[in-house]
Design a protein that fits this description.
- This is Alpha/beta hydrolase.
- One of its GO terms (molecular function) is hydrolase activity.
- Keywords: Hydrolase.
- It holds the Pfam family Hydrolase_4.
- The protein has eight helices and eleven strands.
- The radius of gyration is 19 Å and the shape is globular.
- The chain starts with 6 loop residues before the first strand and ends with a helix.
- The protein has a nine-stranded mixed sheet, with helices on both faces.
- By secondary structure, the chain is α/β, with parallel strands linked by helices.
- It has a single domain, classed as Alpha/Beta hydrolase fold, catalytic domain (Rossmann fold, 3-Layer(aba) Sandwich), CATH 3.40.50.1820.
């Protein structure tokens, strides 16, 4: 029955989407959008991918790599992002990261209804923060066999004063003034390093993923800060977790070739130091020459990312697949 709800997707004939209505929030009607490959790999292994901030799913090559390695591919455009951003909504705007749990619940329920029994939950940047928290306390966390976090957003990439005084103060104000808007503070050069119109290799819809990131509200900052505090305290995720990040953080302002070989958004030291606290079965890998979204790195680098990812998945999922086969 779920099959009938899929419609053509903006990525063309290889993909299809299902818009999932959700309960209204403080801005009105809400939806999330599940995207999948039209021709899936056989079997019951699948991945559910969650994008980052000022982002949406557009990485066709990633989907095809998963299929080539025997995984059914799905991606979720969260509420107020990309395909799910409605005209009355503020882009990316939430006041608590748990608002996204309903989107993940709905997507995982559909994956299970379509016969997927071994599910990898994957998140990039802010999506990595979200899926780590969901794996700790989401209502369908038991459906997840493993997690892959691509440069997860575990801490603000700011100076000590802002991280320890400015952000906590602003987050506290967000409780009473959630709609006060803050300016975008990420360099536009990162977006320029990605998109074909500028210096990059990739083509995507700029209104959904603009070169200058969307501004945020104090309520959003409060939600992110609360998530970061939980990561800093440590989680107890029972599933195996793979965290990948670049081996270097961008070290200079202004345009340079470093944008093609470093993380220009986050401080990789924060990822490296915080990731082991996610659970008892965490593998952390630094990718030489990787950028913030590792699967958008230069061809040789992203080939290495996929090689390491699927080698790790083959190892950690073997017991789960064996148990499924016995059933």
């Amino acid at each position: 029955m779920a099959e009938s709800y899929y419609q053509p997707d903006v990525l063309g004939p290889d993909f299809e989407q299902q818009v999932i209505p959700q309960p209204a929030d403080y801005e009105g009607a809400v939806v999330c959008t599940l995207v999948r490959l039209r021709e899936q790999a056989p079997g019951s292994k699948a991945v559910l991918y969650v994008h980052g901030f000022t982002d949406y799913f557009f990485q066709r090559d990633m989907a095809l790599e998963y299929r080539r390695h025997g995984y059914r591919f799905y991606a979720l455009d969260l509420r107020k992002y990309g395909r799910s951003w409605l005209p009355h909504q503020t882009a990316n705007n939430v006041r608590d990261l748990r608002e996204y749990y309903a989107d993940l619940d709905a997507a995982l329920a559909r994956l299970q209804a379509e016969g997927n029994t071994t599910i990898v939950l994957s998140g990039h940047s802010t999506g990595g923060l979200l899926v780590a928290l969901y794996a700790q306390d989401g209502s369908r966390r038991g459906a997840v066999a493993a997690l892959f976090l691509n440069s997860p957003f575990f801490a603000m990439h700011q100076n000590w004063l802002n991280r320890h005084l400015g952000v906590p103060l602003a987050a506290r104000l967000g409780r009473w003034l959630p709609d006060v808007q803050l300016p975008a503070n990420l360099p536009t050069e990162y977006g320029q390093s990605l998109h074909q119109r500028y210096h990059g290799e990739w083509d995507y819809y700029l209104p959904w993923k603009p070169i200058e990131v969307f501004p945020v509200k104090l309520g959003w900052l409060r939600a992110i800060h609360a998530g970061h505090r939980r990561i800093a305290r440590g989680l107890q995720i029972p599933q195996p977790v793979l965290v990948m990040h670049s081996d270097k953080t961008l070290s200079r302002a202004g345009w340079s070739e470093q944008y093609f070989e470093t993380d220009a958004v986050l401080n990789v030291r924060h990822i490296r130091e915080l990731s082991p606290g996610l659970g008892a079965h965490v593998t952390v890998m630094a990718i030489s020459g990787g950028i913030h979204d590792l699967v958008l790195s230069r061809p040789a680098v992203r080939a290495h990312v996929y090689q390491q990812l699927f080698r790790w998945l083959a190892t950690v999922l073997a017991p789960a697949e064996a148990a499924t086969d016995r059933r």
